[in-house]
Design a protein that fits this description.
Chain B: Keywords: Cell membrane, Membrane, Transmembrane, Transmembrane helix. The structure holds 2 protein chains of 2 kinds. By secondary structure, chain A is an all-alpha fold. Chain A has 33 helices and 2 strands. By secondary structure, chain B is mainly α. Chain B has 7 helices and 2 strands; from the N terminus they run ααααααββα. A two-stranded antiparallel ribbon of chain B has the order 1-2. The chains are: A mainly alpha, B mainly alpha.
Amino acid sequence: MTLIHLAIFLPVLAAIVIAVIYRYVKDVHLGWFVLPIPTVIVAYLFSLVPSIANNQVFHHTLNLMPRIGLNFDVYIDGLGLLFAILISGIGALVVLYSIGYLSKDEKLGNFYVYLLIFMTAMLGVVLSDNILMLYFFWELTSISSFLLIAFWFTKDKSVYGAQKSMLITFFGGFMMLGGFIVLYLITGKFSIREMIANVDLITASPLAPLAAVLVLLGAFTKSAQFPFYIWLPDAMEAPTPVSAYLHSATMVKTGLYLVARFTPVFAFSELWVWLILITGLVTLCWASFNAVKQDDLKGVLAFSTVSQLGMIMSLLGVGALAVSSGANEQIFTVAVVAAVFHIINHATFKGALFMIAGIIDHETGTRSMGKLGGLLVLMPISFTMTLITALSMAGIPPFNGFLSKELFLEAMFEISNANFSALADWSILFPVLAILGSIFTFVYSIKLIHGIFFGDRTHDTPKEPHEAPALLLISPIILTLLVVIFGLFPNILSGTIIDPAAMSILGTDTALNTEISHWHGFNNPALWATVAIVVIGTALYIFRASWMFIYDYHKEQFTLNHLYDQGLIYSQLGSAKATDSVMTGFLRDYMVYIFGFFVVIGIVTTFYTGLPITFDDFADVGIQDIALVIIMLVSLAVIMMTRSRMVSIIMLGAIGFAMALFFAFFRAPDLALTQLAIETVTTTLFLVCFYHLPKKSKHEESMQFKFTNFIVSVGVGAIVILFGLSAYSNRLFESISQFHIDHVYDLAAGGNMVNVILVDFRGYDTLFETLVFGIAGIGIYALMKAKVSRKDDDNEEHA
Amino acid sequence: MKSTLKRAGYSKVQRQMNDVFIHFTSKVIFLIILLFSINLFMAGHYTPGGGFVGGLLAASAIILLLIAFDYETVRKMIPVNFHFIITLGLTLAIVAPTLLFFFGTPFFTHQHTYINVPVFGEVAVHTAMLFDAGVFLTVSGTALMIVTLVGGTDE
């Protein structure tokens, strides 16, 4: 347990505190209590920057289950640190912003608890070296994202968006787990660093492409790449601080992180490179093209986020070429530097833009572009910030977006010049797609500025617009200042943060000494590309009325959303049908299914493998055993004969107590004790069930029904006895009891082996059994309560 | 409990329920069972017993009271919410093994030591005990909740 482990878990510990205190905090906004946490973490992380810049890495381990390799290994290198700083830094700004954004009437306790859980999950994802822990935190981010999107859960659209994001990201996460397992099968390691060290094994393995595709599915769903991007626009139903934080600055970048982290592992594979490159470029173009037609302010930003993520993804693809081909290394390291730089830049300008969108929503009451206009005079500060950040997004100098976009265009030109066997004839496509995407990026950026702040005031807004209070403005102002500072002085980042991160992606130790400059001379094609983008983009924006009709050709039934909705509807119908066909509502039918299946499987197994039974090692049967068996048989017979429920229950109890006596005779006092206690409680439970039981029917069951039940029950009895005997006769493994007997005192300092196994040796089992017990209790509670409330509904209907 | 049986048509039972003998003896036996269950729980690490059995016995002690009296009376005697007991138990069960990180050992590697307590002499102190207490509380809370719910007295 080191400081960095504590830093990762600090938010979740704070979440527990918040969950307790939020009822008592009424006068002060809860956010003020949350704000110090990300601030402390980001301060701590900044203290690590100098060491990381000197090529140092930190590696701390916390043993969870060392035997199976599940340890919480924290590994901090440039890449992890960059993301961690983004997470906690933007987190602090977002919490500050949310204090102004969410009023005290909202369920702030829920909001901050989810947000803090998310912070821990994100820090865990980017700082874990162990892929199992990575997966755990990865899914935790999906869960907290789901909860935050559904924050206003009374709105149908929120619930729809939350479900969509959950289904898609969980699908990807699950695929990724499969990829991780394949990687484990190849290397036998759960640690990413050890995988990189054993990369020859992966290169040689025929399973590697499978692992690559599965891991990429995880990355693409999370980072909203084509065709999985459809969840992100619907996730915009979340409160705006959440959109700014999760769905633009941090969570959607975990896919990029994953790709970057696994670049040294998979870069040898052409499949990996081309999948990333092409998916990234297609996403860039498609999403920026679609962003132009959006009317919802946050919709524009959502599609814009998708397209920017595609752009970074494609850069990582080019970067992977550097690792795999080895040739033209200088060219491709530029791509990695651009990717890292753009991750930072995108977080700053898109975070600010989302916050401004929230401000506009907050102050005017609408996010519809059609209803907004002419706010320049009324909201001058917001306008200035939008101008700077949107121009940065469009790639206009001197802001930081220009620098990374130019690096991006350069990389795309270089790759078209470089000669690759696979796609040599098509390589001209890369710069073309890149420029196309950038043109539409320019168009929607200008549309944002012009549509909101210029033109005539529409007076359609539900609220009378005015400038936002200072509390809402601080966070976007800080981000906007960063946009300007990084734009003017990019090299304060290059040596300290970008280079270490790029080096960990490339997997090298040689310093890169990146210098980012604004001016590369007239010979640079990227310069002319930028000029072309601005000229064509402006022209397209001015004449938008004459070409916007092409969006009408994109009919509803051809969209991915339509496919998703239909898939959801039909899978629900299908599963309902399948369930209805077997679920009759009678417990006895289910028993027949379960036991019948057991009998069939038992018979098939016996048929194929045989059941060798020896009678050598059996104990003598004493008079007391015979007496007990007779008691049990008589009780059983009575249960089957009697028509009184009371008698049945008492006889069932008798069987249970006879069983307990059996345990006692066979010197298993723990079992006997437990059996007695359980029998007592269940008998009481049966008694109280009386009230709920239906009236006994006089109906006689058919012979066929009775016969089936007879066959199944005799089959189950016979098979259990045979299996028991066979298991006793054959020992495939050395029994573990001797280990327990030997070590019950020296390892666990206990005397009672059974209990030591329960709480210590196999404590995990007990932990989860306890959990199951609790869940079962809560489930029964919900069932009983649901029944009661349905009764109430019926009564209302009748009345 | 009583009302349940009455609704089920066991009117004769009701007369028995007002029996002062049952009321009195159940209170005494309740105490004995509860003490025994605590004994089982405490001694579990060395002799038969443990959190699960202890919890079940504690639950059955309270169920005895429920049979002798009715839900409302028992509620007044033991004013604790069963949900709270379950939550507390689950929290203990997960917190106890997590705290072991502070000893620098893996999850679920329990620690123990011996301390001298006046009257009792040398006593073993286990972190496993905390975990077992979680099991105890969850089991007893769940058993009680199910019985009272199914008994329909919680409505």
